[in-house]
UniProtKB/TrEMBL annotation:
One of its GO terms (molecular function) is DNA binding. Residues 6-104 form the HTH hxlR-type domain. InterPro entries: HTH_HxlR (IPR002577), WH-like_DNA-bd_sf (IPR036388), WH_DNA-bd_sf (IPR036390). It comes from the Bacteria. Pfam families: HxlR (PF01638). It comes from Acidovorax soli. SUPFAM superfamilies: Winged helix' DNA-binding domain (SSF46785). The keyword Phosphoprotein does not apply. This is DNA-binding HxlR family transcriptional regulator. Keywords: DNA-binding, Transcription, Transcription regulation.
Length: 111
């Protein structure tokens, strides 16, 4: 019999995905369009960005909004639960800045 997965472990795994936390971080200020997010995240492909945005939507963290324009305009914005997660990420950032030296233990920084 397989033990149930811990919800905390599940969330940490989800947020630990290379792009999920960064996408939430960039969406905290204002809604952004697909091309804005591509520009903000060097190294992400359009395909991966679409997959990550869909995963964030499925978790109830991000909402996709279509506007009745021509050509069609789509923007993504944080949902209330997404804002809660960004608050937790902010706490992690504060913790890291208080407890790290010139560089983290692996020699690099988040973001």
């Amino acid at each position: 019999m397989r033990p149930e997965r811990c919800p905390v472990e599940d969330w940490l795994g989800f947020l630990g995905h290379r792009w999920n936390a960064l996408l939430l971080w960039h969406l905290q200020e204002r809604p952004l369009q697909h091309q804005d997010l591509l520009a903000a995240l060097p190294g992400i492909t359009a395909k991966v960005l679409g997959e990550r945005l869909k995963a964030l939507q499925e978790r109830g963290l991000v909402q996709r909004e279509e506007f009745a324009t021509f050509p069609r305009t789509v923007a993504y914005h944080l949902m209330p639960q997404g804002r809660q997660v960004v608050g937790i990420l902010d706490q992690f950032e504060q913790l890291a800045s208080r407890h790290e030296g010139p560089a983290g233990p692996l020699g690099h920084r988040f973001g």
